[in-house]
TrEMBL record:
<protein>
    <submittedName>
        <fullName>Putative conserved small protein containing a coiled-coil domain</fullName>
    </submittedName>
</protein>
<dbReference type="InterPro" id="IPR038444">
    <property type="entry name" value="DUF465_sf"/>
</dbReference>
<feature type="coiled-coil region">
    <location>
        <begin position="37"/>
        <end position="92"/>
    </location>
</feature>
<dbReference type="InterPro" id="IPR007420">
    <property type="entry name" value="DUF465"/>
</dbReference>
<keyword id="KW-0175">Coiled coil</keyword>
<dbReference type="Pfam" id="PF04325">
    <property type="entry name" value="DUF465"/>
</dbReference>
Length: 99
């Protein structure tokens, strides 16, 4: 649990630019649209797992009587940022094309 708290301590430090750069670097390394989709799906799976982990960490902190309110607020903020990023990647993988 301590590792999770350290990981999410600076919730505001997670920008979409960092993830976009990571995805772009992997696409260049692999090349091609199929590889791009594979990289995006891998990143989406990682973000979903991190979102679930945050959910567990938030639940654990909320059950503690001496929980740190600021830490809880940071985790919730990080979870919202992750959710936005997940939605962005889902939209990139499954564009809503109106014919």
């Amino acid at each position: 649990m301590v590792g999770e708290e350290e990981t999410y301590r600076n919730a505001g430090d997670c920008g979409n630019d960092n993830v976009d750069n990571l995805v772009a670097d992997n696409i260049v390394a692999f090349g091609g649209p199929r590889d791009e989709e594979r990289v995006l799906r891998r990143e989406l799976a990682r973000l979903r797992q991190e979102h679930r982990d945050l959910d567990s960490a938030i639940d654990a902190l909320e059950t503690m009587s001496t929980s740190d309110k600021l830490q809880l607020q940071r985790l919730k903020k990080r979870k919202l940022v992750l959710r936005d990023r997940i939605i962005d990647l889902e939209d990139r993988l499954n564009p809503d094309i109106i014919a």
